[in-house]
Amino acid sequence: IDYGTRSEGVTDDSQAFLKAWNAACSSAVEHPRVIIPQKTFFVNPIKFRGPCKATKITFTILGTIIAPNWPIAWDGLDSSQWLAFDNVNGLNVDGFGTIDGQGKGWWDQSCRYHSQLEQCTTLAPTALKFLSCNGSSLSNTNFINSPQTHVLIKGCNEFEVNNVVIESPRNSPNTDGIHIHSSHNLQITNSKIGSGDDCISIGDYVSNVEISNIMCGPGHGISIGSLGRGGTYVKVEKIHISNAQFEGTTNGARIKTWQIGKGYVRNVTFENLIFMSVKNPIIIDQNYCVPRGSCKQRETGVRISDVTYKNMYGTSSTKIAINLNCSQSVPCSGIFMQSIQLESAHAGKQVAANCNSAFGEEENVFPGPCLSKSKPLIN
Question: Quick check: pTM over 0.70?
């Protein structure tokens, strides 16, 4: 407010936000703080840039920040982003305020659901981006109705997310909760995420990620992928997902790779998961292609190995509760399944397991057995 906001949710407050940010970023104070008080602020697309003189900056959101509710506000601008922090180290975004993306205008022209529109859009703004950052965090913040992904973490190292709430409708297109790309050494904990896409999605060039105590639903589950689109080389490893609950989601624990991809996904653990009426509680799809259902066998594929599924129970809303659809050319190997009990969400119905080119061991798994025990030939 000291930098000129009207704080009534109608007049553009963007310049006041930038002035406050620039003052903090250039401050001689070691740990400056930007405070957004308990009022409503209308903010057009902006980017908070670093590097900063301060070694640590706290960005405290106590009020509500709202986006323009019409896509035309992005004309001539980068339509992939609304709010972004770029090249800022030691940043802590916190506070119990709300970031409201007002995404309905974008959803109503999305090609995913409105392909008949002459100017439908495939790209819409991410509510909040963290780009090229180190030693930063996001905590205690609420996100609602982002036009597309709610939070993107890209090119970051040593990043923590804790106690975040994300909400958007089940049918909102591509509204991932948190997406991670080209980042390492992350923790995402104690959060509740409901969206129209993945609650948390892990993209390419990601390692050392700990995800725990997550409530997911609605949405598409917690996913590694999709990976390898366009035949790219994939490097994803050391992913640990534990103590998560999935309610009414499309997927639970998912790994999805394109047939034409290369590289690897390895050293992944899913454990202590609860599924409540989930369509695909445990799923690997190593044969992803477009159009769906027309995939032919290829010699390429992202190698998936050393994946553990442990201590899982709950219900599946479809017949196939465990579905490991791996590549014949590059089979899944080192799969370990232990203490899994899945039943049908529908009284009197049975569930089954389906495994193709998936090799490993299983103990106390129902439905099962499913995995092949012989070792695959390595190309």
Answer: yes
